[in-house]
Batch of 4 targets.
Target 1
Amino acid sequence: MIKGTNFIGSTPSKEDTAQLFAYNPANGEAFPESFSVATTSEIDEAVTKATQAFQIYKSIAPAKKADFLDAIADEIMALGDALIARACGESGLPEGRIQGERGRTCNQLKMFANLVREGSWVNATIDTAIPDRAPVPKPDLRKMEIAIGPVAIFGASNFPLAFSTAGGDTASALAAGNPVIVKGHESHLGTNEMVSQAILKAAQKTGMPEGVFSMVNGGIPVGQQLVKHPQIKAVGFTGSFRGGKALFDLANQRDEPIPVYAEMGSINPTFIFPNKLKENPADLGKTVAASVSMGVGQFCTNPGLLVGIQSPELEVFSAALSQAMAETEPSTMLNKGIAESYYANRKALLEQKGVTLNGNTTETEGNRGQGLTATVPASEFLKNTKLHEEIFGPFTLLVICENESEMKKVAESLQGQLTGTLLATESDMTQNIETVDALAQKVGRILFNGMPTGVEVCPAMHHGGPFPASTNGKYTSVGTDAIYRFTRSICFQNWPDQMLPIELKAENPMGIWRKVDNELRR
């Protein structure tokens, strides 16, 4: 099934002699296929096809777009065990995790299919004319969200299915009416191609225009060419701060700057309050350790920073946390580069002033991540921004405050985060309302007595946060509102009814929810 080609629309293409290889991170062995790096002409052709497809795809009936999304999910499931085996082999992730991720990927596609089929997502807003209004007549004004054009999507390393080729970025961009060009992640090239073929098969079966989807392989130069291409209208990215910020800066240097919706990681601070600690500090330590270790710490919502006030209970918590982390078996990380970065960044943090190690720093072989914790006084944390940086892997830093005032200062010192967690009783909350509010100002999602590593895919979820967690904290990459990253508003003034988009026609033939003269109607 795997050809090792790029897909320029539905056409397999292999112009360049430069090749990439996929590796099993558990043993370092290469998979047999070679993958062609996309050339400049292939990228140009993919974007040209996407631009031509946009003129058709943006106007295709919502029901047909929904059928396309449903068909993608069906074709992914039809890949069966072969997809699961390949994704496990390229990522080092266990079979159960990949099966769950496949389910999430397909459910996301079907969620957006239902959203598009129902239609109210366009936020149709109508103000009818008042021709005899004095002193100036009021025109008829009708506003809605529309697609923007070809979108470039970058696959993520830590989610080979749910945040990659047919993941939430691709699903939401296609749902909005935009053709998509995916740059597959180098860590799972075979998985990317298998899913790309499923998308193209679904496009053919549902009669989508040629160029509605393309996939290109390559490293940084290929990504740069995509972002700089004048016909690309937006970018979706999940990954490191360094990578996301580089794409963001590049997009803003264009003659026509475009939005880059980059989710760039987070230390996800968890504040542990005194009364909560008194309930059962040892069990709480074990719970936090399980969250830190989940997926070898390779979640963007991994709780990498813990904040508490010095007390005997905090000491019990810290000891239980450290023991649970030490007892967790090392597991294979996503790739060699991530494993090397984990150990290098962890070592650099442990060398900072005031940091005390809690555990064994021995590095394991075979790209396996060994969990570890450390502590630092809040006074040192507040002075040293190196201690605020993300360590991508099974590591967490416990900041020990002298009192509630110092805990508040820690909350105020943080940069933007995806999540913030409160392990607290209701009395802890009321006694520390300023600290709670300071944390809320820094995060996209704030949790009460839960762990942040689970992200529910639903309309109410917000997965984003103030910079540098993401490039625009207003938008989410998870849930139905992710569609609005790839739309823009347009207002029609005094248009003949027969010329209006179906969502804005007077009789509302789709029966969608609309705000008409400031009243929500169907």
Target 2
Amino acid sequence: MKQELVHVIAGNLFAISDAQGDIETDPQAPLGLFAYDTRFLSHWVLRIDGERINALSRDDLTYFETRFFLVPGAASHYVDADVSIIRHRSVHDCFHENITVLNHSSQPAEFTVRVEMASDFTDIVEVGQLRQRAVEVSADSANQQLVLRYQRDRFVRETTVRSTVPAEVDERGMTFQIRIAPDGKWETDLHVSVTMGGEDGRDLRADLQSHQQIVRTGMEEDLVQWLDRAPQLVAERKGLEELYQGSLADLAALRYRPLSYRERVPIGGLPWAMGLCGRDALITCLQTMAFTPELAPATLRMLALMQGGQLDDALDEEPGKILAQLRYGETGAFSDRTSALYYGAADTTPLFVVLLDEYERWSGDADLVRELRHPARMALDWIDEYGDLTGDGYLRYQRRNERDGTINQCWKDSPDAIVDAHGRQPAFPRATCELQGYAYDAKRRGARLAREFWGDPAYADRLEREAAALKERFNRDFWLPHREHYALALDPYGEPVDALASNIGHLLWSGIVADDRAEAVAEHLVGPRLFSGWGVRTFATGQRAYNPVGTHLGAVWPSDNALIAAGLRRYRLDVQAARIADGIFDMAQTLGGATPGVIAGYERDLTTYPVQLTTSCRPQAWSSGAMLMLLGTMLGLRPTGDNLLVNPAVPEGFGRLELLDIPGRWGHSDAYARDRTTERRHRLH
């Protein structure tokens, strides 16, 4: 077992170290200080008198701040050690570390404190395949400063380390010769600033200690305000309030400002998706609408700003298409792999329209709907003009970039995710079932926006006719009557890909499922082949490609399950929705801490503990958002005109729930609910 890794996050900037606070290059894990997809520190190791240090304890103060309590040498030194060390680490737009050395003896003591420092400026996508870069190093003892710099053409990245006390600075780090009085202490603040493109933008040399305190106070205030703006949860179920607060804090951590953009948007998750991912951001905003609605307008404007405007095979770009991801690393800048702007997703474009409509329903912000009229109509046009690749009226995908474009451009985007029950991959272009649900939902919602805000009833009528025709066609072509579920996809010849997968739950969420088929779909979702006990698997057991540790071939995603539960409630299948919500909450509370992006699909009775996958992000925005969406689903929160409708269906064992000060066009409202056991007990008394 590898030792625990420790992280601190402030939006796109984050640091991952070992349990002692040290950073060393590991091809299996992204240890280091990262910002905007580049590693600015790859080596950061503390030694006392030449010895490595070991952890006694750690205090994780907030998502952006932690403290390590340490002693030098091996574990045998822990007892009655004469010296101990505290490393207080925090991040914001920079990286700070306060090192305090304590002398516990009755005599003065002299120590050599050494911090080794280096950077390889690796793009995060290359962490497992390192390549050498020519890094310039400038050591300046007079100013207590070490500068590490990498340049490739106009791509410039620079790391500057400064100390608040005198140090001997060499090209590999800083050394401090210190003398500490009996029962005394010595400390220094190390400040690491990161520069991109040769533009630092800040002068932090003057008073680093006071600056660090000002920034820390500002971030603490920002977190307090973020939590205060969200509704307050009062819950009988033990640990549920803590899980709720933790999910909100994780969402606060996973906000950042893209370059040249003033507002904060949600990023994917630590460590592999610490940037703007269109799908993740859109789903996160939909999940958190009743809790943190301010994420939605910032995300919509940003995605509208980056909307595709031309045909570009390398970027998989098409007019009207919504961004899949935005990256700032070296490989993106030089198109060594996919480009900095990449549009290889077929679901982001309809989801953009879905989010715009849903945000207006909650907020009443008609101005934003009018402001984004053109991007929304371009997105709706894209569904038919570029998304319908075979002319049969279905939204399909096939990558333009044959070199390194994403193969599967749906939410299950791993290369082997779309297969039939026998493990065979269909030809391209592929029409996965949930894409049709998203397109149907986008057309219906676009019709409402056109009629009520854009003054175009003829366009609204057209979209409604197209949506109705799509629903009828879909229920004819995708339904497998002998299995009583929808096909995972259609191949380019209209033949169904007959796998049973969690995608059918997204169909309920979109509303494309015929009413008389919803119950059959629900029984599959909570049946033994798909439901693990913790949640719905991405791929059902009994099929050749099923793999409980396969990311999209049997594992369980909280984000997937949140949409499924919401879809079940849409069709009044409350018992099945409650079962899924109960399993996901059990999983999250059993693991503790941030909700992981994905867990293995083993039967709950087999493992008795949720098994995390190494590929999982934690925290991940749409997993933390899933916890909030499931709460909203249990309470049955739905905007209706200028009012908030509350229609609870709470799983047994949850007791009483109160969600206070829910924001929306109505101002603020409260929601109350009890599970059935609590209701019966209440009536008896």
Target 3
Amino acid sequence: MLKKATKLVGTMAIGIFLCMLDTTVMNIALPAIQTGLSTSLEQLSWALNLYTILFASLTIPLGRLADIHGRSRFYIFGLALFLIGSLFSGLAANVAWLIVGRGIQSLGAAIVFPASMTIGIQSVPMEKRTSAIATLGVTQGLAAAMGPTIGGIMTQFFGWRGIFLINVPFTLLSLVLCWRLFDLHESKQTKERLDIAGSLLSMLMLFSLTLLLVKGSDWGWTSGRGLGLGLLSLVALVAFIVVEAHSQQPMVPLALFKDKQFVGSAVVTVMSGIFLVALLVLMPSFFTKVQNKGELLAALMITPASLMIFIWSPISGWLLSKMGPRAVILMGSLSMIGGYVALSQMNPNIYWQVCVAAILVGAGYGIVIGPITVLAAGDFTGNLLTASQSVIGVFRQIGTSLAVAIFVSALSANLLTAKTNIWTFAQNGVEALSVTDKVKRDTLMQVKTQLATEKTPKHQQTTFIDKPKTQRLIRLNYQQALQKNKLTQAPAAVKRRIHQQVSQAVTTQITQDNRALTPVVATIRRETKQQLTQAFLRPYRLALPFTFGMLLTVFLFRKRRDYLNRN
């Protein structure tokens, strides 16, 4: 019996890993997908964000439906949807099909994720429950953290389609295991009823909130759509609380929030998720855009964070049983704060400094993420236990959405300022040169084109007017010289002599222009790299004071003596 329970927990871990992996695996492959499908980043962003929006919105109601109609059958249905969505996404011929595929994937994930937690926890005896919850909780954090690394590897070796098609063999394996391990004849919970009003309000609240967080920076936080979504989510939240307070079988039992430790777990889940995902989202973009690294190398450069989560997550469960929750949460919080101190002060061109920051953030997340899932479960049983895991899962998605919304929005504003500064700097530098107006215009056009990509030039240029341009200038000046001196009908020898003179004069001028441009363009390149680097680092500096907020949550958890006596 225990052996079957262990297999069930392992099978549920596969499902959770796949669901959480797809929240972050796509980010690093966006440039490759954009090129492959010949689409705009605006359209592609819907394929990226739809998964997070629907996953967060539907997890609680679909988890509840699974509780009522049979988790095993619902789970297999969810896996089948996830498989179909992965195939749609991986084989998509255009961005519309990719968006459809991601939508189907998210529906499957919203069924699989909460059911995985409940099936895994309830399959083990009470004395083994803590270790099962910790295992499944660690899997969630590890999957989200490994997303960019796995995405980089798959994109490098198998193309962008590989990031979706890799799900297929693992989903099929999970389906086979479920077919063998599940009791597919489980009865429906006839006494249980779906809280329809609560379901609709929770979906409306979470959908409007996550849509606002994901698209707010694009639409404008104070735009009509931004303010409308904010107001809608707030009204839906108030209505949801009122409905749940009077419901006999609420979607989210409000009794959960009477437990200080559950509230602390929810807050730490959101905050730690924000600070981890901010590292996973911004740094790979920094490596590819500013340092011109490939996608694979950029992903591998933040792998130390994932490695620390892998190492510390299992250790943190043991620490919890010895030190109690307060000490463990304090240790993880201090490590994440240390990571943000390093991110704020580091020179990102020196990799060991980046590595130290990634190690500290990853270790801090690894230390808190395993215990948080256990602590959220607390002493709950039955429906409260199931609800606690679904709600914490939703808070994890909100943390991811918040990280993307806050840090990508801050980065976008910083990049806009940086590009304005670079453009002003370039104009001033080029204007002071003793070159023709056309050369000035061409040079500034090159700068403008480069700024549009938000990338630094790969190599320092010494030739700005190349051979094809030189030949065109020689031909143009030659024709002008013939017409000016009325020599269009002159003998060939005269024309050759004029062509030679023009060619020599143009070549000499271009050599002088290239020599004059080299130091100025080199200065512009350095300024570009410096401005873009600061644009990427400034969000971490602004976030640093908020990381100390994690320390305030420590007092929401039980003291060592109280925790160990209860366990």
Target 4
Amino acid sequence: MRRTPGRNELIFVSERTYHGLVLDRFQEEALDAIDEGQSVIVAAPTGTGKTLVADYLVEKVMSEGRRIIYTAPIKALSNQKFKDYKQLFGVDKVGILTGDVVLNSEAPLLIMTTEIFRNQVITGDPALESVSYIIFDEIHWLNDEERGTVWEESIILAPPHMKLLGLSATVANARQLVDWIGSIRQEEVALIQENHRIVPLEYYYFAKDTGLVNYEKLWKYYRQRIQSAQPTEGSIFAPTHHLDLIKVIQKHYLPALYFVFSRKQCADKASELALIANYLKPQEKRQVEDAFLEHFGPESDWYPSTRLLRRLAVKGIAFHHAGLMPSQKVLVEELFLKRLIHVLYCTETFSVGINYPVRSVCFDTLNKFDGRNFRPLANHEFFQMSGRAGRRGLDERGYSFALVDLNYMEKNPPPRFNINRLEPLTSQFKLSYNTVLNLQATLSYEQIQIYFQKSFAAHSNLQTHGQLIAELAQLEEQFNGKGEHVCRHTDSFACPVKYLPKKKELDRLKRSYQALGPRRQNRVYGREMARKIKNWERLLATPPQKCPGAKLALCEEESKQRRKLQQRMIEIRKDLKTLPDQNFFFNEFQFKKNQLIQMGYIREDELLPRGECARHIYVQELLVTELIFSGLLETMDDDQLNALLSAIDFEARKNDYFQRLPVLDWTPLQDLARYIQSVCGPESVRYDPRVAVIVYSWSQGLSFAEVQRLSNLDEGDIISVIRRTIDLLRQMRDAVREPALLQRLKLCMDKLDRDEAAVLAL
């Protein structure tokens, strides 16, 4: 522990170590807080060693014979942590629960996605009674627009006996997050913040004309070149290609992650680089070839995408995105960890989780498509991805390089990112019907009201309300105090400060009116100008008071300050009116509850069979429940049932194509959807029948190659559709009680859970 010495006192600093590693200050503080039995939030830049804190906690809890849960935002990270902890503690000590797989669920250490934990706490799973700690890796995902609610609900509903460790990248309002968690859990939560990176990062922009430069030099070159350009010149700047950047950095800055916000571009750019570059020695090339044979068997059985990956990987180049098959992603990640991949083109999902050996990070563009529009990367997105650069113990520095097209500098200037202006975490709380049903099943009326008051949104709004009220009171005091040199004529036209500018404006208006001439003066706009002149002449008929010049200057300055104060007070009162009502979420709860009463899910505050079923369904819970209770499932065979479920909640990407085959009659599903929408609104149901042809064919036993020909989906997307269908079948199995249906759902799962779609061995 470090101690502040007195005068003339020697400083003794004992360095705490963990598994032979000397801890950084923030790691020591985090471990001390854990030892004291506190809940802890660690906010530190990517790559600074937050994972060590989690490892220490896991080891400590397990050595004391207690249970602990580790949650991660994505399945890939959950799978990786499962593998790591199995090696540390043994197969019997570690379990995993994701939508894909359930293994050793009674183990003292459970790895799961955050959604699984949310589902456990919201249904009051008794298995949580023996868990002493919950770890939220990447807790800043609370800010995610689509999934942030999962983190918020998990934190609100986590049992009081369960301590919490949250690991986060640097966030602007970490103190607000910790205050919220402490207030709802009624405990002191330690905030451990670290802004310093052990391996510092350097940030550069790159264009073919400029080379690697900072932001100021980029603009300086651009303006000088524009000013010196001849009018007859065509394109002033040379186009910049990703290969130009790689050529510049490949000698000193590899391994590199090259972020591209397009799956197709990932593969295309990797292929282009492989035509001109080879980063592996013959022995390393043989290692890669052996790894492919070990993972995928004889080359005659490989898919075209696997052959492409092999052609690239033997040169130390690869690509990685969600459209790859799970086995392909795993191999690429393993090769990268072994430093056999030197340039990896990837989408931003690679910025989450495992600390890969990266010296530099490249950006093909600083704009991304968010599902609706192209927009600049946010500060936190840029620094999260850049933070992957710089390997502790290997690199003195990490590097971030952003590609810039100088031909579009004025039209689309590159953002200037600032680590000190990170966007604050904000609540993304959304109320689902599943949440309504589970709250109704497990909490009293008063507890439900308190639940919504505990949301991060309510906490933030309350804080904002208090801050605005305090600022308004301060401004009002300043406004009322201003006036030492302001007389009773202030704010009237008897005051020269207000009279003279308006008199000048009136004179200009008169001149404009005279310039119109008699004919145009008689038109509509001319008559309107005449009315305005007459009104202002009446208001300015009385000359203003005569004031000494010195007093007039003081009065003018104070009036200017008062107007500023007045404008800010108007803005604050407007902001106060736009803040959500404190009962907003509870009112929404009541509204959704009434809809569920109307549909026969709730009666007199008790869940009916439909409600009890829907509280265990987490995807399109109303549509799935209505399907179960409609008897529709009994009218179709197992393959059609699988096909039907695959269409639920599927969202196609732009330009997705599917063959049209008569899989089943969609009319009954459309009727159910219209019924639900008539009560709950058009957004309450979502499905896409086109994808059903894939799962129907797979369920019938077709090979993966045959199924591939039915659409233009990437291989990984096809696997994802099948795995999501299996996950929904598993949810239905947990929700129903009828033995015959339970058996049938198990058979349907077995028909899908095979060959390429089966979960990789963990």
